[in-house]
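This part of the workshop introduces the protein records we will be handling. A learned vocabulary of local backbone shapes supplies the integers on the structure line. Getting from the letters to the tokens is the skill we practise here. As an example, a complete record with its sequence and its structure tokens follows.
=====
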Amino acid sequence: MSGFSTARLKMVDGQVRTNDVTDRRILDAMLTVPREAFVPAAKQALAYLDLDLDVSEGGTKRFLIKPQLTGKLLQAAEIGEGDNVLVVGCATGYLAALTAKLAKQVTATECDSALAAKSKDACASLGLTNVTCKAAACTEGDPSAAPYDVIILNGATEVTPEGLLGQLRDGGRLVGVSAESKPPRAMIVTRTHGEFGHRTLFDAAAPVLPGLERAAAFVF
């Protein structure tokens, strides 16, 4: 086994399974998708650590969220094999690649166009033909491939992402970290007959996605 293969196994056994991720499909995806392929060469040694990994190279800081949170959000999303999924703020595409192992079709957006291109290349190099990576603001999603069964945020939001919720199909759900109040928590929002129901899942912290920050309060 290579060093990365061993690290991947330790990540799944030590960080993901121990945080109540029991879905075999997710565990298998996390065991087979090489996280180091989505990390700049200089940081590949950090690929399997329990941290939000900064993968930006200049520009806005962009992250791969912690492996255990990645697994828990995927499990909460209950992605079906026939589902059409949107991954928002995909950075270099790791969450998009995992999702592609679970869903029928994945659209992944990233506000940093250089990282969107890296995401596209990384997914292509793994032979993932059912994922489309695009440069787009986190608030915009991708209406052209909507409606979605599932939308996953690769990070946190401090505001209600109205533009994304409007792209859910009836019965669809958005999963991510809500930092609208403290402490931040993982949340699932379900669309039913045009109404949106919010449910808190568990305490969780993640970097806020660009464009989904709370507006700065005006101070005299």
In short: Residues 3-16 form the longest helix (14 residues).
